[in-house]
């Protein structure tokens, strides 16, 4: 059976979570933490047993086989001291290719349960990734998994494809991608990334979690130390929201604590005894890190997210700016806080309106400046917007024509993966 008649496999590898599934679906089949647990015992044995070749070989084979990924890896590392956790992706870039290969192996055979030789693959990469990374990806996919075709897409372009709200696919806009390990603001014009205007900020979902953990620790909440990061992450995902005015929010919490303060109940992992703690100001102070980075002490970065977005659009070509302001797309799990899009739109509108007024004043009212429309698009699927965009694009007939095939790879080598044409047939 021809691989082009089967749905493509779409895998969106993020720093925190990996989304995987088949093209044509609305949601990914599986969402797993991007983490691998490797058995240190066999790994060390394969390195140290120099004298006995067969012992070294069998230890090496066992080290290759004895590993876990995702939720299983986290559970193994908690229950056993022999497994060491490895995060293959850091700040949006693949850091450990051996672990990444093992991770993909489990994704394909254990979760998606498909034959990689019978499906085209769509993988994602973050903006500003070195072309060598694409070559490594192509090498692993074509050599190890023997895939018939591969397309490596920039995740912001896919998020834009997922974010369009009309029947026409609007491929000009700014993607604000706030993931677990990296935040990128990427302007896209007609499906092409404006590389020189990409902005990246060092505050993302993990920093929000660490800040919530720090606030709870400073307040003296009785959370077991080994569980505190996980509790902070769950608090962030379940209870956090973005407020419009931080002072008013403090007053609200102080006036009606019974309404706003939540209770967290958990069980200590080692003793099995229950514990509870209060969740107060961190509900709105966590997401506030994106708008007032100075409150998060461990970072020297102090520019609020709306200012960075404005700078990004201002550095783009002048003829695209109005279209970029009109279509600001949110993407990534850390944009799911309630009220985030409204706060972002309000703050951006203030910056843009102040600039228009200053321009009017400079010209003395002789030249009337047209107001700039600012629109932040929020949609229910933005948590996995990149994956959904990949699913949409991989289900078009142009996808198979734009992908690099095994034959091309064998003829020209891994360098074919350096460039991926945009779907020219669509626009």
UniProtKB/TrEMBL annotation:
The keyword Nucleotide-binding applies. It comes from the Eukaryota. The keyword Nucleotide-binding applies. One of its GO terms (molecular function) is ATP binding. It holds the Pfam family Actin. This is Actin-related protein 3. GO terms for biological process: actin cortical patch organization; Arp2/3 complex-mediated actin nucleation. Keywords: Actin-binding, ATP-binding, Cytoplasm, Cytoskeleton, Nucleotide-binding. Belongs to the actin family. ARP3 subfamily. GO terms for cellular component: cytoskeleton. InterPro entries: Actin, ATPase_NBD. It is found in: Cytoplasm, Cytoskeleton.
